[in-house]
UniProtKB/TrEMBL annotation:
A cellular-component GO term for this protein: cytosol
Protein name: Arsenite methyltransferase
BP terms from Gene Ontology: arsonoacetate metabolic process; methylation; toxin metabolic process
Class of enzymatic activity (EC top level): transferase
Length: 346
């Protein structure tokens, strides 16, 4: 809390690129949406990837570790006024601001922004963004809380279509509890789409207890193979790797501490596939129609679906497409390929 709420005031204060690595090319739709977000919210953003899945119109989305609210305000535009975005973050407000508090003028220079915690920054700009997006009422809300205990914030079972997270699960000591809670609040067929930091091996106690490495998102990095084990134990489908990029450490002292371990910023997607969903391989045809992905949908590192083309998929992917919000975008028939091997990010 202290590192993110007090010591870091802007992205340039970070000692590695772990928390600022962009995971995928940004579409014009997303670029335009980013332009409409208040500059203080953007300046206080420390995420490690742009966590923007596809097909979000009217969805209910939960952002774990929402920070200054940048991703929430971006998603607010993509879900539309009929959708809803909830952000939850552990950094506590020192001064409480209501959602109707006046925002900073857009002309304020970044250097003039006072030191304030992440949740406070997010909340005080709700009215600004509601007006900017032309909405009659806000479609975002922010809570102080812990992603391991979403029930304490009043988040009910099966209440969200998508759960996202942007470089914060590594900060949670109990990562299984985080995935368990995400699974609980997701509707059947819902998705957890998240960027985070992963390690090529299990970390030593020296690394895991290093204060700066914790704040830089490295000390809590999960060994990538353990993600697969935890996801299965919780009940998710096998993780689908979307993108992965290496992390560089620009500090000699920190390099010496981590030794031969390699880190990557990776984006995965997990699905809550209901029991009794599609049970065998399939042949699928993408019908197009997803805004920003009309001709081609890059689903993950293994599957890119082109409009009108028949593609063989394994049983897991067939079940994901058939049970999720993507179902109406695909024609799915029996037949296809055997299961693909898990694809590691490190």
């Amino acid at each position: 809390q202290d590192y993110y709420g007090k010591e870091l005031q802007k992205s340039e204060d970070l000692k590695t690129n772990a928390c600022i690595t962009s995971a995928r090319p940004v579409s014009k739709l997303v670029r335009d949406a980013l332009e409409r977000i208040h500059e203080e919210v953007v300046a206080r953003y420390y995420g490690c990837g742009l966590v923007i899945p596809e097909c979000l119109t009217s969805c209910r989305i939960l952002d774990l570790g929402s920070g200054s609210g940048r991703d929430c305000y971006l998603l607010s535009q993509l879900v539309g006024e009929q959708g809803h975005v909830t952000g939850i973050d552990m950094t506590e407000s020192q001064v409480r601001h209501g959602s109707g508090a006046p925002p900073h003028p857009s002309s304020s220079p970044l250097t003039s922004f006072p030191s304030s915690c992440q949740v406070e920054v997010a909340k005080k700009h709700i009215a600004y963004h509601t007006d900017k997006f032309g909405y009659r009422k806000p479609n975002v809300e922010f809570f102080h809380g812990y992603m391991e205990k979403l029930g304490d914030a009043g988040l009910a079972d099966e209440s969200y279509d998508v759960v996202i997270s942007n470089c914060v699960i590594n900060l949670a000591p109990d990562k299984r509890a985080v995935l368990q809670e995400a699974f609980r609040v997701l509707k059947p067929g819902g998705e957890m789409y998240f960027s985070d930091v992963y390690a090529s091996q299990r970390l030593s106690e020296t690394v895991r207890k290093h204060r700066v490495l914790w704040g830089e998102c490295l000390a809590g990095a999960l060994y990538w193979r353990d993600l697969y084990s935890i996801a299965e134990e919780v009940g998710f489908s096998p993780p689908c790797l979307v993108t992965a990029s290496p992390i560089t450490i620009g500090d000699k002292e920190l390099e010496g501490i981590v030794g031969h371990c390699h880190f990557v910023s990776a984006t995965y997607r997990l699905f809550k596939v209901p029991a009794g969903s599609w049970t065998g391989p399939g042949q699928v045809t993408y019908n197009g129609g997803i805004v920003g992905h009309e001709r081609e949908l890059v689903f993950d590192a293994n599957f890119t679906f082109k409009e009108g083309e028949v593609m063989n998929v394994d049983a897991e992917m067939a079940a994901i497409l058939q049970s999720s919000r993507f179902a109406e975008k695909f024609l799915i028939r029996a037949g296809g390929a055997n299961a693909a091997a898990p694809q590691g990010c490190c």
